[in-house]
Amino acid sequence: xxVLPRWRxxxxxxxxxxxxxxxxxxxxxxxxxxxxxxRKSSGALRAIALLVAAFAFLPGGCASTSLAPSVTAQQAxxxxxxxxxxxxxxxxxxxxxxxxxxLAPGLQLDIRYAGSDxxxxxxxxxxxxxxxxxxxxAAQALARVERDLRTQGLRLRVFDCYRPxxxxxxxxxxxxxxxxxxxxxxxxxxxxxRELLGDYIAPTxxxxxxxxxxxxxxxxxxxxxxxxxMGTPFDFFDSRANTDAADVTALQRGNxxxxxxxxxxxxxxxxxxxxxxxxxxxxxxxxxxxxxxxx
Length: 295
Ligand SMILES: C[C@@H](N)C(=O)N[C@H](C)C(=O)O
Ligand SMILES: [Zn+2]
Hints:
about 300 residues; alpha+beta; Muramoyl-pentapeptide Carboxypeptidase, domain 2; six-stranded mixed β-sheet; two-stranded antiparallel sheet; 10 helices; binds zinc ion
């Protein structure tokens, strides 16, 4: 039976002020709580911030039920976004996407959605080759990160780059199929599948704008490379994957910080719920979603 998962407000659509939703409110609350923790704020301010954060992290978030539009609205969102995609182009280069590995030959590619080693358990629509395509400014910035890390004996292992919109639709279909729980033990053991869409899998993903990348660090000794321990694998949908999660070891924290520092130096910003997800700021093409296949 296909059941649509709980609807969440898409990041691409401005949200009415009164409409606090799981995604945005959690994100803001997270930032507020973190800022309060880092700053030497007064006890009262800190208590308020932590209360806001705790409320936002309650299952179901704040006002999502009163907002919850129908399935048709979710479909409309997807279609509206489709109309912003770059028309009939089916050639990535013609829309300005470049092969990041051609600028940074040292990038290690482990493009999970081009094969079956991912949470869906099958190759994802739109991925016909294991390539890392990005808009040129993002690819250039990633190449600078890679050069910088190489001097420290480290390499970047890339899991995903530009993601065609048809791939995102494949994820949404997978998320709606609640009978398929095959990957739960490995990818979301502590979450209900209905919780994934929104926080951990975006129904309208920044990856489709061509300046977002999922990646990790690895240390190489000659030709042998081993990924650094980040506390969770890639695409482990769980609060332990939140970049500043408290329940990781000092070593894992250090590795996450090292990746974040290297990426930030070249203008990439981390998504706090996933230690592996980075977007170049400012985005080269912030309002544009692409749907050309990766070939
Ligand atoms: C699915 C995961 N790799 C990811 O990229 N998640 C973010 C939220 C996204 O889908 O944009
Ligand atoms: Zn990502």
